[in-house]
Amino acid sequence: MEKIDIGRKILSENEKYAFENIMFLAERGKLCLNMISSPGSGKTTILARTISDLKDKIKIGVIEGDIQTDIDAERIRATEAPVVQINTEGACHLSAVQISDALKKLPVEDLDLILIENVGNLVCPSAFALGENGKIAVLSVAEGDDKPAKYPGIFAKSKVLLLNKIDLLDGGHVDFDIERAKTDASRLNKAIEIFPISAKTGEGMANWYDWLLESIQKT
Ligand SMILES: Nc1nc2c(ncn2[C@@H]2O[C@H](COP(=O)(O)OP(=O)(O)OP(=O)(O)O)[C@@H](O)[C@H]2O)c(=O)[nH]1
Ligand SMILES: [Mg+2]
Predict the structure, then answer these.
(1) Closest C-alpha to ligand 1, atom 8
(2) Residue 33 pLDDT greater than 90, yes or no
(3) Long-range contact set of residues 211-216: C-beta below 8 Å, sequence gap at least 24
(4) If you measure from the C-alpha of residue 168 to the centroid of ligand 2, how many angstroms do you get, rounded to a whole number?
(5) Is the pTM of this model over 0.85?
(6) Does domain 29-216 have CATH number 3.40.50.300?
(7) Domain range annotation of the chain
(8) Ligand 2 midpoint to CA 6 (Å)
């Protein structure tokens, strides 16, 4: 019986669109980052605060990925940034063809930066290239400091790790050893930049903004 390797074929189709997205962005000199984390680690909160805090410096467009609803797109719309919502209707990750369609709906020429919020999940999104210039992993201190060791894929592939919700460390509400998370992530990925932040209080966000502005300059 002939063996059909369906998994490989789907990935190849995704890679084809990812390559088209890479070309589309490169021709226009635009930086595009793919934000990945578990549900609720604070992706949308980080995006909204980043847009507001940098509004006098850069124009940011957002592609929101969720299984259902446009709740996150509404939160981004409140910042007045252009946003496209994608509903995957059950799929646990965004795919490159969805990003290709979304890029056509954004005013890309007017933007300095495109941020993609992937479907909340530490596993599948890391396996599907979207044509982005880099992945940004978010891990909140409420999730446990063992996550880089237990879910290595995303930490191995990301340019930046945002350790969010550090405000919760004050008062001992959660046990999270920042040094352990940093050591484990750096062991998986020597180049990863790690910024402890609180999207709620703004603590540490300046380091993330400096990295973003420098990366836009280099693109
Ligand atoms: N204490 C604290 N809470 C935060 C922080 N950042 C986000 N939150 C809260 O965490 C919850 C989830 O935040 P979201 O921004 O919706 O998380 P998300 O990663 O976008 O979630 P999904 O899109 O569902 O995957 C909200 O109640 C936020 O107010 C933070 O730095 N500190
Ligand atoms: Mg969100």
Answers:
(1) 42
(2) yes
(3) 211/160, 212/50, 212/54, 212/58, 212/113, 213/54, 213/57, 213/58, 215/31, 215/133, 215/134, 216/31, 216/58, 216/112, 216/113
(4) 19
(5) yes
(6) yes
(7) 29-216
(8) 31
d(CA 173, CA 167): 9
With a Cβ cut-off of 6 Å, ligand 1 is lined by 37, 39-45, 72, 120, 164-165, 167-168, 198-200
Residue ranges of alpha helices (H) inside 71-193 are 71-77, 96-105, 147-150, 152-157, 178-188
pLDDT of amino acid 9:
61
How much is the average pLDDT of 6-28?
86
pLDDT (0 to 100) of residue 152: 98
User: Ligand 1: distance of its center to the CA of 123 in Å?
Assistant: 19
Q: Length of the chain, please?
A: 219
pLDDT score at 2: 73
Ligand 1 atom 12 nearest Cα: 40
Mean pLDDT of 113-117: 98
Q: Give 150: exposed, middle or buried? Use CB within 10 Å, 0-12, 13-18, 19+.
A: exposed
